[in-house]
Design goal:
This protein is α+β, with helices and mostly antiparallel strands. It folds into three domains: 162 residues, ATPase, nucleotide binding domain (Nucleotidyltransferase, domain 5, 2-Layer Sandwich); 169 residues, 2-Layer Sandwich (Nucleotidyltransferase, domain 5); 223 residues, Transferase(Phosphotransferase), domain 1, CATH 1.10.510. It has 14 helices and 22 strands. The protein has a five-stranded mixed sheet, with helices on both faces. It has a five-stranded mixed sheet with strand order 8-7-6-11-12, sandwiched between helices. A hairpin with a 4-residue loop joins strand 1 and strand 2. The protein is globular. The structure holds threonylcarbamoyladenylate and fe (ii) ion. Component of the KEOPS complex that consists of Kae1, Bud32, Cgi121 and Pcc1; the whole complex dimerizes. It is found in: Cytoplasm. Keywords: Acyltransferase, ATP-binding, Cytoplasm, Iron, Kinase, Metal-binding, Multifunctional enzyme, Nucleotide-binding, Serine/threonine-protein kinase, Transferase, tRNA processing. It is an enzyme of class 2 (transferase).
């Protein structure tokens, strides 16, 4: 099969020929380069109208020269996401070409194409995919017929976050490569890879999501304050890429996947690829990033995915081929893969998103390695204890690494104790060793909620009550996934469990009421652990994010999430502030979230 692909979502007018039998890709591209500022949608669309016919012509001519008049079996085009005026130009060209050649038309999601090209070239079976492109940043895993969003930016795309700074200082678009050059030069002038000085910038990871808005503004402010540009570029890369590497590691840990592929324009950055390669090597995972011509926007990735879709019969009638500027990757029915290739999303996985691996006492696996910490149980007969050590990450700048591990260790100890005083069951903190980022904690519960989510209404409801109590005390958890909720008892039988993993709060015994399932909460008790990403805040938005993170982990884990989410929200509403639930609806409605 041979497919002609057309790309033109924003800046790159491109056509390509993919010959599936030979697995060869010919790409012709013509970039739009704004004189100043960022991408102007109208100018970009004009560029598409002018440049698309020429690149298509060049590829078509080459195809017919090589294979004769019936060279093309299908035409594939980027249907979205992207700038509306650009997408419409490309859509029109693709429809006309498919009609003239009398071949099927395939509508490709640009984000899925960024990831599939890496999977295709690597030959990996079930990778987690990190997309680092201009307008987007997310982690995806194929599961049950869809690409699931495991984590994503809460605001700007990664390239745009960097380009915002370069626009501020007057550099032309695209800024990413210039930041890379300036950062490399700064490092070379300051003693190699890791100069001691690292400008402090915001580092924001919330559960599996992350935010770049604060870092762009802080970089701009640093420039206004006279910090040298090279120093800012270096720090910008170290912070932004460490955030991506951290969430990628969490996604690997959550799913138990052992393969990571990278895609998107920012993936051309050597430092980002180096960090991800180091992270993967340290946890025994395989890493793959395709060569640069497949990373930046290009029609090759559109043609390759187009061929997979066409082979699966996934073509589109001209009348139904409208473009979609907001086309999300998780909206795409994945017709070209089979279920055997799914990554485990949720409970079936062995790993964890953060330090929450909790071997049972006496577990032969003395040390288990989460994404962030190594956790060992001391099987003391009287009272089992957990020793949790946040281990250094080689991929991070040493200064950033030290401060992250120290800050989270301190936050976890302090907030767990404060939460406990406010009435939320958490482990007692026996010892804090800040220098070694190590905590000694009480062993709580029997197992984590992720392992028993189905039918766990009573536990979920209890979790809702605890989060409401926590928020009422002005604290957010920051990472309240089902793996960071420890449970005891049996929600379906009302048994109180073995009692081995005792837990409680300083106001224990106050919630013996019966919930909607007829079970007493004393029979389905929960404790919150892992406060490392927590902080003090009274902002409704931050509280709503906690609920969003929890509900996201329930959706990813449960067979029938709706009833559980209702129970969770009922528990929250019984104790907490209803405006937080209203804000949650608003957060979900913003489109970035499901
Ligand atoms: C929707 C679609 O139009 C959009 N495409 C897009 O943003 O172009 P892409 O080629 O995937 O990525 C471009 C971004 O990639 C950045 N970039 C290119 N080379 C870079 C480098 N060496 N280091 C850092 N960023 C780089 C650019 O600054 C720019 O922000 C997307 O995929 O989000
Ligand atoms: Fe892109």
């Amino acid at each position: 099969m041979r497919v002609l692909g057309i790309e033109g979502t924003a800046w790159c007018a491109s056509a390509a020929l993919y010959d599936a039998e030979a697995d060869s890709v010919l790409i012709e591209s013509n970039p739009y380069e704004p004189d100043s500022g960022g991408i102007h949608p109208r100018e970009a669309a004009e560029h598409m109208s002018e440049a698309i016919p020429a690149v298509v012509d060049a590829v078509l001519t080459a195809a017919e020269d090589g294979y004769g008049p019936d060279a093309i079996d299908a035409v594939a085009f980027s249907r979205g996401p992207g700038l509306g005026p650009c997408l419409r130009t490309v859509g029109t060209a693709a429809r006309a070409l498919a009609g003239a050649l009398d071949v099927p038309l395939v509508g490709v999601n640009h984000m899925v194409a960024h990831l599939e090209i890496g999977r295709h070239r690597s030959g990996f079976d079930s990778p987690v995919c990190l997309n680092a492109s201009g307008a987007n940043a997310h982690l995806l895993g194929y599961h049950d017929g869809r690409y699931r969003v495991l984590g994503e930016t809460m605001d700007a795309g990664v390239g745009n976050a960097i380009d915002k700074f370069t626009r501020h200082i007057g550099w032309s678009h695209p800024g990413g490569p210039k930041v890379e050059a300036a950062a490399t030069e700064f490092a070379a002038d300051h003693g190699g890879d890791a100069p001691d000085d690292l400008l402090d910038l915001p580092y924001v990871v919330k559960g599996m999501d992350f935010s770049f808005s604060g870092i762009s503004s802080a970089a701009n402010d640093a420039h206004n304050d006279g910090v040298p540009v090279g120093e800012i570029c270096f720090a910008l890369q170290e912070h932004v890429f460490a955030m991506l590497a951290e969430v990628a590691e969490r996604a690997l840990s959550l799913t138990g996947a052992t393969e990571l592929v990278l895609g998107g324009g920012v993936a051309q950055n050597d430092r980002l690829r180096e960090m991800l390669a180091t992270m993967c090597a340290d946890r025994g995972a395989d890493f793959y990033a395709p060569e640069p011509r497949f990373l930046r926007d290009n029609a090759g990735m559109i043609a390759v995915l187009g061929a997979k879709m066409a082979r699966a019969g996934d073509t589109v009638a001209i009348a139904e081929s409208a473009v979609d500027p907001n086309f999300r990757p998780d909206q795409v029915p994945v017709t070209w893969r089979n279920d055997a290739e799914s990554v485990a999303v949720g409970a079936r996985s062995a790993g964890t998103e953060s330090g929450a691996v909790r071997p049972e006492p006496g577990d032969p696996a003395a040390d288990l390695r989460g994404a962030e910490a190594v956790v060992a149980v001391e099987p003391d007969a009287e009272e089992p204890r957990v020793i949790k050590r946040r281990i250094p990450k080689r991929y991070r700048h040493p200064k950033l690494d030290r401060s992250i591990r120290r800050d989270r260790t301190v936050a976890e100890a302090r907030l767990a104790s404060e939460a406990r005083r406010a009435g939320v069951p958490t482990p007692l903190v026996y010892d804090v060793d800040v220098a070694n980022s190590t905590l000694t904690l009480q062993y709580v519960g029997d197992r984590d909620l992720a392992t028993a989510i189905d039918g766990g209404e009573a536990w979920v409801r209890s979790t809702g009550r605890h989060l409401a109590t926590l928020h009422d005390a002005g604290i957010v958890h920051g990472d309240p996934t089902t793996r960071n909720v420890r449970i005891a008892g049996d929600a379906s039988s009302g048994e109180t469990g073995s009692g081995r993993g005792e837990f409680g709060s300083d106001r224990d015994g106050s919630e013996a009421e019966r919930d909607g399932t007829g079970l007493s909460e004393a029979a389905a008790r929960t404790a919150l652990i892992d406060f490392g990403l927590g902080y003090h805040t009274g902002h409704v938005e931050d509280h709503a994010m906690d609920l969003h993170v929890f509900e996201g982990s329930v959706r990813a884990t449960a067979t029938d999430p709706d009833a559980l989410i209702d129970a969770f929200e009922a528990g929250y509403a019984a104790v907490g502030d209803r405006t937080v639930l209203d804000r949650l609806r608003e957060v979900e409605g913003r489109g970035r979230y499901r």
